Structures are given as C-alpha cells and as structure tokens.
Amino acid sequence: MIIDGKKIAGKRLELLKEKIDESGLYPRLATVLVGNDPGSQMYVRMKHEACERVHIGSVRVELPGDATTDQVLREIIKLNKDPYIDGILVQLPLPSKVATPKIIACVSPEKDVDGFNPYNMGLLFSGTPGLVPCTPKGIMTLLDEYRIPLRGAGVVVAGRSIDVGRPVAALLLQADATVTIAHSKTRDLAAEMKRADIVITAIGKAKFIGPEMIRDGATVIDVGINYLDGKLCGDVDFESVKQVAGAITPVPGGVGPMTIASLMENTYIAAINRSCSNAG
What we know:
Blueprint: H1 5-23, E1 28-34, H2 38-54, E2 57-63, H3 69-81, E3 87-90, H4 100-106, H5 118-125, H6 134-145, E4 154-158, H7 165-174, E5 178-182, H8 189-194, E6 198-201, E7 219-222, E8 226-228, E9 231-233, H9 238-241, E10 247-248, H10 255-279
Parallel strand pairs: 1-2, 1-3, 4-5, 4-6, 6-7, 7-10
Antiparallel strand pairs: 8-9
C-alpha cells in the first residue's frame, strides 16, 4: 500500500478552507526568510501558495543573508506584537551566524505555528500538546488516515532531531506505541529496524535503508529529503523496500505535503485560540 500524502493533504486543505470560510475568521501567517537559499525560497513559496488555497492571509518578511541575530529578533518582536498576525514561521535552516535557538525562543508560543518554541515543546513532552511541530503532526495524520494501528505497536524512529525525531516519538507514546529512538550512535541499526512494526526515518542519507532492514509487512514512513544524481529521494530505497513493506510513503508525495497541510491547520488553530483569548 502506497501512503499518498499528496492526496490526504489535498483533502485536509479542502476541509480546512471550508472551516475557515464558515468561521468568519481571517487567519494570517507571517514567514521570515533570511538569505537567498533556493530550497528555502521554494518552501516559503509553497507555504504562501497553500495559504492562498485555504483563504489564509500571508505576509513575507525577507532579510539578507548577512542579517545579524539582533536584526532577525527585531523583526520577530514586531510580528509578536502585530495584532493582525496569528502565526509566525521562521524558515529553517538559518544562516550559520544567526543564533537559531534564540530566534526560535523569541517567537511567541501563541503564534508558534512550527511548534518549536521551548514552551510548546514542553507541553508536548508533558502530554498536553499545544501547537505541535508540523512534520510530526502530518505523520500522525497519515497513520490515522490509513488506519495503521499504533496501540502496542513497536516503532523505531531513526533520527533524534528536535523538529522530527523527538516530537514524533512523544506523539507516538501518547498513542500507546512502544517507541525506540535510534540515531548515529545506535548499535546495529538494521537489527533495531527489522524488529519494528513501524519505521519512521529522518536521517538524511539517500536510499540508506534497504529491504533487508525492514520486516515483512511493516509500515515505513520516509521523512528524508535528499538529492541523488539530481533527483529528489528519501532515506529509503523505495523501489526495493516497497516489495516487503505493508505500507510505505514515497518521496516526493508522502510526508512533505502533510507538513504544509499541518502548518495551515496550526495557523487556523492559532487564530481560533487568539480569537477566544481576545474575546475573554
């Protein structure tokens, strides 16, 4: 079974547009882009296109690649104070000389639609999530839409990043899965994966995972974004692994579209929360 993230994302976006139109709200998302990295520019453009599709207003803040940490912080503080902005997304990665942790921590938790602010991370790991990081949220949506059972399932998450690995592990634990977080120092990664009912990989190595590492019938969620011979591919050797997996996401067309759909959903949630707070 091919898990079609593009199809599910399209369905979720159409439902979201209906909700927004019925709500009477006009959510607005601000993106902050530092520098002119082509990949980052493309991702920001896709996010603004998604905003237009679901009737979310969007604002672009663009800074030169030599911007300082203080300059970026000043822009975020302005957006934090702007009563017409519901969500703030800082496009990562930032240039190396910009202090990324400071930037992330500066974004108001109420407007932190990426879910990376330490406050929102704390809520997630305490079992009372607020705004949840978009890629992990999209992964959980896919598993739910395709009715992949999680309660009691053995899940290996390959990658311990703060934007994917750790938060998706927290969400899986809340869904009663048994979770192992593997990483570059894990002994015998292949053996760990081979035991898993579900493998979620975000290690950043093109086609690193082959069929010998996957149990027959396992679900494989590929979060990897790599380029090999000029073509986009995931961490999983898709063509060979799909022969043994029970369900698998392609790259592209799997988790990526769900990340953007989840961002739109988070922006709407932030708008609702702010509306209720203002009303109170």
